[in-house]
Amino acid sequence: MTHIPDIAATTQQAAYVINTGDGKSETRIINTHLRQNTWVSLGTFQFTNSGSGPTSVSLSNTTMDGDGTGSADIAWDAIAFQQLPGQPSDFVVAMGDSYSSGEGAEPYLPGTDVGPYASQDTSTSPDATWNACRQSQNSWIRLTTLPHQTNTIGKTADVFGDSLDYQSTACSGAYTYNFGPGELVDTKTNQPIWGTMGQYHEVPQIAAGFLDEHTTLVALTIGGNDAGFSDVVKHCVELDCPADSKVKGDIVAATANIPGVLAAIHDKAPNAKIVLLGYPELFNAPNVILGCSVMASSNASQLNGWADYMETHEADAVATAVASQAHVPATFYWPNAEFSNHRICDNATSGINDAVAAPTGPGDFSCPGSKLPCGSMESYHPNNTGTPIYAAAFLNALRAANY
User: Fold this and answer.
1) pLDDT at 179
2) Which residues contact 288 (CB under 8 A, 6 or more apart)?
3) CA–CA separation, 246 vs 237, rounded Å?
């Protein structure tokens, strides 16, 4: 574990190099802009004094986004080692986009909702401190109790329990290309994309280094941002939904990226089972009337239809990865049945936010001077009623994956 001080630690890319004494080393990259004194787990390692290499933990003074100006501070404080009775039974990594991070289900974990506010028009923020990964304390992965575990992932991880190694790189706004593994560059400008939606100043998700041969489970949602989910919903609220052919074409293009993401995860974590969860239908469309949603009933039905279309193509993408030469051990599960009676405009408590006004936190959007309401990143995401429902779906997915 490394201790993060409440001052002088502002980089989102602190690279710790762990030499385990057998000639091998691993690099774990973490966000240190937490603004509080706290311990952070770097993971579980088997150290040895075989003499074939050094045994050490060091902190690099370089970052991927470094420009040589010292705009972000790297602070070394303390390292602690916790001896375990044995290897944890579960090594779990959460990855993916806002549906994985827990966007919409406040409160958010330190360092993952940091301003200044972002412009909704540009999806950027003027300061290098911006981080809107918005990893929720109540995300579905943290609310899940794995088979053979006695507490939820979140509760076990928060006390550094010895039966589980849990890490998360999930980030609101993430696209498939935010998985990396290397530095990401805008293909049009040939410039790094630091400070943009879904990347902020964190390293690409695979480059964080938490995937290795010990990883037993990787859980994620991905593809919605590639398909233009936010823009589609915004158009459906403010004007009218985009053309059906355009949205379906974007879904096909987006899901075509998924087999490559799953293969890249499998390459780094060859012994892990991978579970991809889909996106449920958002609305009880027949009940959508003025007062229970800002969405028109016909547009709600259209959005549900596109969720169904997305499900079909995500399932096909996983099947492609499984059938590939790499034989990726991936399972797709659509959490739609679990959300029955808990969609927007259902009579029971909705597990999904309708439109939410921004900003809901320092990392959220702002729209100065706009004549239209400013929509929050939390809009149309599972709330604190919905994340336990997602957790139940995840357990069903684990059963399907024989985990």
Assistant:
1) 94
2) 295, 296, 297, 300, 344, 345
3) 17
What is the torsion angle, in degrees rounded to the nearest 10, for the CA atoms of residue 357, residue 363, residue 369 and residue 374? -20
Residue 273 in contact with residue 217, Cβ under 8 Å? yes
State the distance between the two ends of the chain, measured CA to CA, in whole angstroms.
28
Omega cis (within 30) before 286: no
User: Distance between CA atoms of 266 and 401, rounded to whole angstroms?
Assistant: 15
Six-digit token string for 1: 């574990």
Identify the pLDDT of residue 50: 76
Asked if 277 and 333 touch (Cβ cutoff 8 Å), the reply is yes
Residues in the chain predicted with pLDDT less than 70, given as ranges, are: 67-70, 182-183, 186-191, 371
Q: Does domain 90-400 have CATH number 3.40.50.1110?
A: yes
Place of tokens 């729209």: 367
Rg for the chain (alpha carbons), in Å? 21
Q: What is the predicted pLDDT for the residue at 342?
A: 96
Secondary structure class of 125 (helix, strand, coil)? coil
Domain locations along the chain: 1-63, 90-400
198, 175 contact by CB (below 8 A): yes
Please state, in angstroms and as integers, the Cα–Cα distance from residue 8 to each residue in 42, 193, 281, 282, 362, following that order: 20, 24, 44, 42, 20
pLDDT for 186 = 65
Task: Decide if 387 contacts 139 (C-beta within 8 A).
Answer: yes
Name the residue type at position 252: V
pLDDT at 66: 74
